[in-house]
Amino acid sequence: MTRRLLLAAVALFLTRGAAEAAAPRRVASLNLTADEVLLEILPPGRLVAVTRFADEPGTSNIVGRVPARVARFPRADLEQLVALSADLVIVSQFTSADVLRQIERSGIRWHRLEGLESLAGFRESILSLGRVVGEETAARALVARYDARLAELARRLEGAKRPRVLYWANPYTAGARSAIGAIMEGAGAENVGRTLGIEGIAPLGGERAFLANPDVVLIASSFESLESLRQHPLLGKLEAVKEGRVVSMPGELLVTLSHHAAESCWYLASKLHPGRVPADGWKSVDAKMVDAERAPR
Known about the structure:
The chain has about 300 residues and is α/β, with parallel strands linked by helices. It has 2 domains: about 5-115, 3-Layer(aba) Sandwich (Rossmann fold); about 165-285, Rossmann fold. Helix content is about 45%, strand content about 15%. The chain has helices spanning about 5-20, 30-40, 80-85, 95-105, 120-130, 135-155, 180-185, 190-195, 205-210, 225-230, 240, 250-255, 260-270, 280-295, and strands at about 25-30, 45-50, 70-75, 90, 110-115, 165, 170-175, 190, 200-205, 215-220, 245-250. Strand 1 (about 25-30), helix 2 (about 30-40) and strand 2 form a beta-alpha-beta unit. It is globular. It starts with a helix and ends with a helix.
């Protein structure tokens, strides 16, 4: 290779590297977690698509906040991604391999959110997303609020007895390595699903749930009700159900995989430990952070 050709090849390599490192200008999200995070950290105009779930009450924590000009995807649509001139697509560990192959073939850059089964994993996914979209400062600020809420909650729960809580979505429960399990434990509960040796979201027979005899049953208001539990042939006989020790949690808080999980933990903790954790107390944590940021240095 002549010296001129070698220099041209190096220049092309450097140009491509710079383009890849440059912050994307048109970001499309193919999962609700990214919808919720990008809305907080990305400047207006750079978010070109979210999922249809962003507008779904009982599922999304950002209902009514995404501008109408942003496209909504009911499912992954490669043609629409190309038409939108998206230069970065955000997928997650739950995105199918077929969709990933289509995106790769299109040549569009993509980033996958991972670790979405723990509170620490949510934190890292926000930071990694901030890096890839070129908004590290905004991502760190969002994580700082998340960390502060969880730290204050942990302080309030220190030394508290952990009630044994069973999540129930007939016939499924949440075990170890599940986001719902992580929220339960962050709220000061013992996750009965984990105690039973269950991993992830998995079926749990009614008989086994009855024999576990939890102190509290946790349900999503979108899927279950106290009445449906009372009508269940076995769960209706649980002391927790008969005595009304059932927490019905808003679906959008229970299924979140983003920074809103700190609010989820706080909500559940306020039901399980009302003497220690005031409802919406996380808002005072945010207010203290704002005051600290405004204080003269």
